[in-house]
Amino acid sequence: MSNLNSLSFYNNQDLILDNNVLELKKLEFLNLGFTNIDQIVDELSTLRHLKELDLSGNGFDEIPSSLFLLNKLEKLSLDNNKIAEIPTEISQLEFLKVLDVRFNNIRQVSKKIHDLNLSEFLLTGNPFLLMSELQNTNVNDMLNRIFSIYDEYDKSKSIDLSNLGIAYVPDLSQFSDLESLNLSDNNIKLESYTLEDKKDETIKYKVYCENDENFKRLTKFKNIDLSKNDISEIPKYLTAITTLEVLDLNSNNIEEIPKSFLNLINLKELKLSDNPVSRVQGFDINKLPIEIIDFLLFNQKKEEVPLNEAKILVLGDENSGKSSLVERLVYNRFNAEYNSTRAIDILGFELSKNIFIDKLKKFQWSKKDKMTLLDDEHYIYAFEECYDNLIKVNIWDFAGQEVTYQVHNLFMSEESLYLLVIDGQKENNIIENLDWLEAISANADAPPVIIVVTKHENNQAYRIEEKEYQERYKDGYLKVCYVSAKENIGFDELKFSIELQLGKLQSINEKIPIEYMKVKKHIEKILIESKENEDFESYILEANEFDKICREHKITDRKEKKNLRVILNDIGTIIGSANDEMHVINPAWIIKVLYEIIRSKDINDGGELNLNSFDDIMKNNSYSERHYKWIIDFLIKNKIALEQDESMVLIPSRLPVNSPEGFSKENYMKVDKEFGLNFRYRYKKRFKKSILFDFIIQMQKYIVESEVKYWANGVFLEYKGAKAVVISNKIYKTIDIHLPINNEESRELLVKIRDKIDEISKKDWDIDDDWDIVKEIAIVQDNRPVRYKSYKFLKFKKEEGVTTVELDIWGKPTEFELSDLLDRYEGDDVEENEIVKLKKDEKKNFEKYLRGFSKEYEIAINSSEDSEDFERCSDNAGNQARKTAETFCK
Domain Roc spans what residues (predicted)? Predict the structure, then answer.
């Protein structure tokens, strides 16, 4: 043992040395690297025969003075410590050939080091060094270069170190007056590294920086050029230089930028061309730096988590059994004395994703959701593993009174499962039930719907006309379940269907940035605390409060915040659009408030509400002045109310049901024995009950100034002396426009009315004007309308050169002059008016669009006998016509 020549304890973290090691007088090679050794170091001076000593990675902040007594030492490894200085005493090691002090914090090197005849001086990874470790470089030349750089740049405002093979950004904190640094065309990587990396001696050109403070001292620094390097990661210390005005990072390998870029508040020019990050679609190098940073931070990939949330909307007529259904689903109980829901109940419960996986394991779906049993080798796993395996399900149980229907529309969304509840004791209620189905279609694009027929214990033989419902809802999933909440019948099948459909909602597996989830949890915590403390003031979150929460969770980009608002509104965490100044965080509270308003006894017979009575309406709902303003604005913005003046609003859903006393369409149309203009919209599929309310709100300036202006199904209008009445019929899905006089002003008013109806149908409902609506004109005989015919059909006949058309009137074939039927409407066609309005460069495309349709309609006309047959034939040609039109428009 005493003759031992070499000994290594490398990376032995539990090493405890005793004095026996010091007795090894012939020891020449000793490795104590990464052992956290701090004892007996001073005693190492007794090992006078040591030639190589490795003390790397032990946390020394200075070179132990005892080492300078090892006068036979040839190689000394002190890399990966915290040494700040190489002192003059180093010159005592006269036989030293290799000195390794890489990855320390060396800021000062004594010029006495020139007295040594070093063959290798390893300095990589120190803030002192301005050059990389280069192979075959003469050590003395390197030392001379180091000292000359310090002498040359000590007081300089500009340093040019381009094209020198530099591997990292040096510590520049001692250059207090430095303003500009050129490090272009080097080998700089700017990579971070770990302690384990430091132990790997094959890793070169790594950056070591103790903290950002050194760079924050550069208070005059304005310009840095790091172009044409090998930078892929930007360290925080670079973005700590807040005085920076120009940062050139062109021609590197940067894939993303850190959020700390937002610290560069004085940046005037940011160059990122020829980097992977600049290849993001929409990137514009000519934008301002803050715009570039915002764009990249918004678009670069973020850590994401599943949203894991679903919403079930329970709809149906009053007393259909909705609340009892929910009670049985959530709590598995039945309350025979359950009162009808006055506003809304929102109940939440949690499901495990394993439930969905178990349901999905042995089933696969066709497009029509017909399930096929699979063998064990073909299981389907539809969900990814995530940090949270629980699904939050919120059931929204709406009130069923008809006056509240317009409020329901505000909260319908595609990312919801709908339970349409039908009273099994009302067998002749198909029209009302189909209205609900069409209301869902009008507000969401084919979401899954489960029709739940309740009270099955009283009428077990009853079955709804499923084929009729499927025909009305053929674009989406539709399932029918028969249940009895009282007897707990049919709920196993219902729960199975619910779990299947919930599992396919996008919101279950939609991934959102983890910062979004943190904001969502933050808002939910505020709601819980406000309920516990009865702090109703906190039910409304102002925009600046929302922004503060976002900043707290590192969301600063405007687009990100807007996108987050949309997501939170869709799932019901907040109520309010992306541009609202305030957001409600308690949906049940605001829905209850809205119901209180539209049901108020203070609304007069004309549907008008004096806002001075608001305090009485809200007496059961704690609210403040800011609540009041937000609620009124919300009513008006969402078309639930129409502002009459500062103190009065109109509630369209409370308009009188009956038409004005003494009014009839026939009498209204007869003026001087001449019948006026009559135009009809007939909706083939979707018809929104609130269409007239929307029309009234948007056509306010044309509504007559008289005591009687409108009722639930009609409204009177006036323009330049011309008068009109618009009447909707929910049962027949029609809107009739009647103008008693046929003159230029009446035709102008008709165009305005049609334009607005088309706009509401297409924009607000996304109804295809050419395929979902039949536009008809009245056929007048003996000065009275005898039936309606397709306006488009008659126009095509006339364009073919046909002068007369034979139509069936009361079972009798009757010939009409096309000019007599159409002349009064010619020039009023919306499509023709739109052509006049189009720019010249758009006009040709639109004309091609019409020709594309006319070609397909020609087929329909040639194979049809009358307008009804024409509509059927045109529907059959519809898909091809649509493709033709789209091709022409392109």
Answer: 303-505
